[in-house]
Each structure stands twice: as C-alpha cells, then as structure tokens.
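Q: Structure tokens for this one, please.
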Amino acid sequence: MEFLVLKWLHIGAMFMATALAVGPFVVLYLVARTGDLLSIRRTFSFSTTIGRIGGAMYGLGILFGIVAALTGAIDLTQKWLLTAYVLVVVLGVNGLLAERWMGRVHAAAEADGSDDVHRLVRSPSAVTLLSVMVVVTLAVIFVMVVKPTLA
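A: Here is the predicted structure, written as tokens:
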C-alpha cells in the first residue's frame, strides 16, 4: 500500500510539474508573438514564480519516485530508469534555457524594446525550446510507462 501511495504522489507531482512547464511556456510564447509590450510585461512577470513552483514539483516528483522505487524494491539502475534520468536532465537544461529566453523577452519588453522582443520571438530558439520540451516530455512518459528493454 505504501508503494502505491508513493507511486501516486510521484506521478501526480510529475504531471503537475509538466503542466507548469509546458502550458505556461506555450502561453508566454503566444503572448510574446503578439508584440504587445504591456501584455508581455504583465504575463511574463509571472514566469519566475511559475518556474519555481514547477521546479519544486519536479523535485518532489523525483523524490517520491526514488522513495517509491526503493520501497517497491525497484532497481534504480535499470536501463529504462537510467534513460529516464538522462531525459530528465535534458528536460531540466532545456527548462533553464527556456527560463533564460523568457527573462530576455521580459527585459526587452520592460525596456520598451519592441524590435528586441520581435527578434527574440522570431528567432528559432523559442520554437526549438518548446519543441524539445514537448518531445522530451513525451519521451519520459513513454519510458516510464512502457519500460522498454534497451540493448
């Protein structure tokens, strides 16, 4: 029973973390594309707080996952788990880069730099960050659900 509760907490925390990472980034990107500096300033002012809460949820999810695995006698060095660890690190690095992009857009909007905002939003980095976030998140979910045997 304890294992199932911990597993449920792990899954719930990770879903919350994903919701707080992907959803807001999509909204912020779309708001930035409008070029409306007032809207960008207001919306992006929440990005740091949302990022911190999302990061905390990822941390809790990882903690609950480790404790659940140990409680459920799951070997933490199984290949599918090692793959998940690597994917989560990639997701974390991508999240830090996305946070940096959001900070630059927010700073440009605060400085009334519509040209800078336009350049940042139209740069391929924003779409790349979003694409990586979605693809790696789906890959983590696949690995955690399917638990593929890897050669």
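A few notes: Residues 25 and 130 are 7 Å apart (CA to CA). The first helix runs from residue 2 to 34.
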